[in-house]
Structure prediction request, 258 residues.
Amino acid sequence: MLLAFEDDGPGPVVVLLHGFPLNHSMWKAQLAKIGSLYRVIAPDLRGHGRTAAPTGIYTMDEMADDVLDLLNALQLKEPVVLGGLSMGGYIALSLIARHPERVRALMLMDTRAGADSTATANARLELANTVESSRSNVPVIDAMLHKLFSEMTRSHHADRIEPIRQMMEKTPVRAVAGALRGMAARPDRTSDLARINVPTLVLVGEDDPITPPAEARTMAEAIPGAQFEIIPNAGHLAPLENPSASNTAILRFLASLP
Prediction:
């Protein structure tokens, strides 16, 4: 499907895939800083932001195919640097597993390769049913918002929380339900990690309770030659919570690419 997107900046292409249930504007600090040196493309994924929200399950493979369709529509034949946070990371792993020739380098941020446990998958499915029956995203906001941010963000940068709440509120209920069901059904990509043969950055917030640093480090160790960065004073939304440290790590990685 046709994705809405931001596309700005010079130089090699960097594609950034946002988390659930947000939109491309979570990358505001990266669009400003990294976009001064690179061509940054930040789409609104299926059902999020300005992109249409069809009914049904939003599988990670289907959402990855949407990104591939966007690259094709932009006539980007050369491989791109592909980055994804949380759900965006699941989508990035789907794309590189099935279309490795389209990826020049990979950035996995606050995400995991493993599938949901049975309990987590069932919780997602129950939450999808709840938002549909209530016709409201409040159950998702109540369940997620407090887990996304570090104590430092909550105490000293509370202004960064409200825009995230607003993004979550604006995402259509059918998109929230579709993405929850898609994440619950996603395959385990752990065995794919050893086959990733492009430069890879694994980045995680120091205080991320959803995908903690120890898990991120294990994922990085499974990818040949991967770089690993822990972002201080950040939780699950590290690039938004500590943009300075995140941008420094990302730019250092991008500068190291051949």
Observations:
- Residues 1 and 223 are 31 Å apart (CA to CA).
